[in-house]
Each structure stands twice: as structure tokens, then as C-alpha cells.
Amino acid sequence: MGTIHEPGETDIESNKIRQDDLDRKPRKYIGYQEFARYSSLADEYFVLRRYDRLHCRVLITLQQRIAVLEERLDELDEKHSRQTPDVNNGTVRNDQPERQLLVEEIAKELKIYTEMLLSYKELKSAPSAPKGNINNINTWLSNNNYPIEDAEVEFLKAKDLVTVARSQKGLFGLLGERNGPEGTNVYGSDEPVDAIASASVFVVGMVMLIAPLWILAVTHGMFERLGVITAFIAVLLGVLTSATLAKPFEILAATAGYSAVLVVFLQIGNEEA
Predict the structure, then answer these.
(1) Could you report the per-residue pLDDT of 172-222, keeping only the tens digit for each?
(2) How much of the chain is in helix, strand and coil states, percent to nearest 5?
(3) Which of 11, 13, 182, 238 has the fewest beta carbons closer than 10 A?
(4) Residue 182 maps to a domain
(5) In a domain? residue 179
(6) Long-range contacts of 237-245 (CB under 8 A, 24+ apart)
(7) What is the number of domains present in the chain?
(8) pTM for this one?
(9) At which of 104, 124, 144 does a domain end?
């Protein structure tokens, strides 16, 4: 006869694991293997520390080590320039062994320093992890009876958490993440969302360009027209802030360009008047 499984049982490597075993020993049966699998499902489930303080500490230390080597090289150059009998300071191939070794050591230290500096610079551009991403991970940990050691998830409380990719806002946040049962998250296909968002942006853009033309054409008085322009600029600023992932200076640049277009509309209206 075949093996009869009780409700709630699953087979893990031919061992019958019951739900109560998973609840009692989550760090044995779930652990990092399931935590890593969960983290790989979506960008919203994966956050890491940037370690700002440690990066700065290491870079400052490396800088000082190189500074000491630089001082030694300067002292060596000055020593050889005053040395008697004369030393050839215009050669690399036949340089003094002491100086050759020092330059090689400097080269190694500079390589480590430069690589770390550039990698940290790139890491600094990574977007900070939204609070919702951190809440997702904490929810998963709670739902699985905390399968990771407490000390090893303390990083979720750090202030320098980053995510591997910027979370999508969707269309004004309406088509992005949605809450499912028991604190889980539900995600739809990205393609319909992208298509709707693109079409919406196109329609909004056309309205924002054409509507002020007609309104300014029937509006009389400088203050009334300035009021119309101000209203449309405020609307555009709100749309760009809530529906895009643009940086503040990019939003201001786009708003300034739109303002310039509306000013041209205003000048045309004044000339016709």
C-alpha cells in the first residue's frame, strides 16, 4: 500500500514534514534556503545595507596609508637629489631598488583605494529601500515564525538600506503593489501596466499642452492669464512628483521647460490682443 499523508504534510527530501514541525522548527526546515528564495522573487523582497559608516572609515584609512607612502616617496626623492655621489633620478628601468619597491607598494594601495572609492560611489546611487519593502520582509519573517536568527535580521532596522532596483509607482500608485491575504503581496503583469501608463502619460501630456492654449485664448487680463499658467504649472508639478520616479532636479527642469512654453502662449495672446 502507498503511504498516506495526513493533511498539512509535505515531503522534503523523502522525509515527511508536518506543518506543526515547520511551526516548531522554522530555522531547521525553512531557514536561509527559503529566505534566499523569497528574496529572489521580486526586487521588493530584497534589501541590503550600504554600510556608509564602514565604507567611509575604510576609505579614510586607505587614504592615510597612501599619504604615508607618498611622504616616504617624497623624502626618498629629496634624499637621492642631494646624495653624493650623484644618483640618476631620471630613470625607471635602472631606478634605485628601494624606490622601485616603494612605487610598487603605492600602486597596490592605490588600486585598492580607487576600486573601493568607485564601487562605493556607484553604491551610493542605489535607491534607498522604501518602508514598504522592509515591511514585506518583516511580514514574511512573521508569517514563517521567524526562521532567521534575530541578530541576523537586525540589519532591517538600519538607516542605510538600499534596494537593487527602484520600486515602480505604477499609474499614480494605483496599478502597482496590492495587499493580498495575510499580509502577502499580489503582483500583476508589468506589460498591461506599462501600456496603460504610457497611454495615460501621452493623454495627460496632450491635455497639458492644448488646454492652456484654448483657455488663454478666451481669458482676458494679465492677472487672469497668469493665474491660468500658475494653475497648470502646479498641476504638472503634482503629476510629475506622484506618477514618475524622476529626481527633484529633473522634475524642476521639466516644469521650467513647460513654464517657458506657457509664457510663449501668453506672449502670443498679448500680441493678438
Answers:
(1) 444 444 444 444 554 545 566 667 767 877 888 888 888 888 888 888 888
(2) 65, 5, 30
(3) 13
(4) no
(5) no
(6) 239/204, 239/208, 242/169, 242/172, 242/173, 243/169, 243/171, 243/172, 243/197, 243/201, 244/169, 245/166, 245/168, 245/169
(7) 3
(8) 0.61
(9) 124
